[in-house]
Amino acid sequence: MTERHAVILGAGSAGTAAARALAGQGDVRTTVVGRTGEIPYSRMLVKNVAYGQAAPELIRLPAPHGELVADTAERVDPATQEVHLASGATISYDALLVATGSGARGLDADVAGVEHAVRTGRLLTLHSLDDAVRLQVAIAACGESARVAIYGGGLIASETASTLQVLGHQVSLVARSQVPGVAGFGRPVAERVAADHEARVTTFFGRTVRRVLATPDATVVTLDDGTDLEVDLVVVALGTTPAAPSPWRDGVAVDDRLRVHGHGAVYAAGGVAVHHDDHLGTWRIDHWEDSAAQGVHAAQTVLHDLGRGEDPGPYRPRSAYMATIHGRMISGVGYTGHPGTRVAQADGLVVLHEQEGTVVGVSGIEAVGEIYGWGSRLHEARA
Question: Which residues form the FAD/NAD(P)-binding domain (predicted)?
């Protein structure tokens, strides 16, 4: 058979998983394109760097299978099947998998003082390894008890608030919702997490940030009700946005096999992929295990389309995640984006996320065994 060239853009969870899935295909050559000057690392572990619990070199990933090119992909030309890199070089492909991940969502443009706060190192995010290093340095510079305002109410914001509080820092948690995390956890889990926040850190729920004023002595965060919070640092944790090369904006739209709409021989997986299917509608998941599962599935679709394997069928999210928040283990599996739930009691709290009467995801507190059991059932139901 003629050798075919599969190019993977991104050396994170989805990209490295896809490269592993393509390994051993003697007539398929694989090239993984990472970012310029960046060594692949586990984004799942960047929080450990931020909290001073791990050195950056300890979260590096093994070299991906195939050739690794550290040269950021800036533009894709599907008509000529070429990738244009930051160095000016181009790479031709027979199949292209876009797995470039995501970036941290920033504050709205109408929030005053943001640019100055970022320049002075007072306003930070926690998404990349560079973010984690900057946050670790900034917290260390504040001494034993930093005053930290966290803006957000999801998994990263909650876990960061919990960890910094345990480490002895003074935490103020600002969230736009009165019950943060409903969309991700379901209301029963979110209400318990919110109660734990209120018992352990200073909370401002149902509030938004209107101004961030970095002065020589402190940073003043002004909320929409006029409340001023005097802190040392602000951590923005408002979720992520897809990070795709041109010609895509706002993510790369894929079908249920992870093929990119409108472009032959192009696929996408992980945090950059925006899914449109008849089962769940439009959705995006951006956590490590699901990205890896998407990468494998996309690679299997590539092999099928190249005539090297079976059709893997439609992709259905069924990967698990875990986080410790204020001493409780929060876990989930599958797609937990539907807030409408019904609740089952096992050893802990279990919330079933349903789509038209079918369980598509499960979340819970202190119920890891139950959650993983559901993961197996979701896998069997969708195999």
Answer: 6-295
| Contacts for 94 with CB less than 8 Å, ≥ 6 apart | 4, 5, 6, 81, 265, 306
Q: What angle in degrees, to the nearest 10, is found between the helix axes of 155-166 and 187-200?
A: 30
Average pLDDT of the residues of the chain: 92
Question: Is residue 284 within 8 Å of residue 294, measured between CB atoms?
Answer: no
Per-residue pLDDT tens for 143-168? Answer: 889 999 999 999 999 999 999 999 99
Rg (CA), the chain: 21
Q: How many angstroms separate the CA atoms of 9 and 334, rounded?
A: 25
Exposure string of 205-242, with b = 16+ CB inside 10 Å and e = fewer, is bebebbbbbbeeeebbbbbeeeeebebbbbbbbbbbbb
Angle between helices 13-22 and 288-305 (to 10 degrees): 40
Asked if residues 6 and 31 have their Cβ atoms less than 8 Å apart, the reply is yes
H runs (alpha helix) in 123-218: 129-141, 155-166, 182-185, 187-200
Continuous segment of H or E residues that includes residue 304: helix 288-305
CA angle 335, 381, 366 (to 5 degrees): 50
In angstroms, rounded to a whole number, what is the distance separating the alpha carbons of residues 380 and 169? 45
- How many other CB atoms are found less than 10 A from the CB of residue 260? 22
Pair type for strands 341-345 and 328-334: unpaired
Cα separation of 293 and 319, whole Å?
7
Among residues 365, 269, 266, 378, which one has the least CA distance to residue 333? 378
% of the chain exceeding 70 in pLDDT: 96
- Which letter does DSSP use for residue 86 in this model? T
DSSP 253: E
Taken as a whole, the chain contains a residue count of: 383
Q: What is the pTM of this model?
A: 0.93
What's the rounded Cα separation, in Å, for the pair 255 and 298?
A: 11
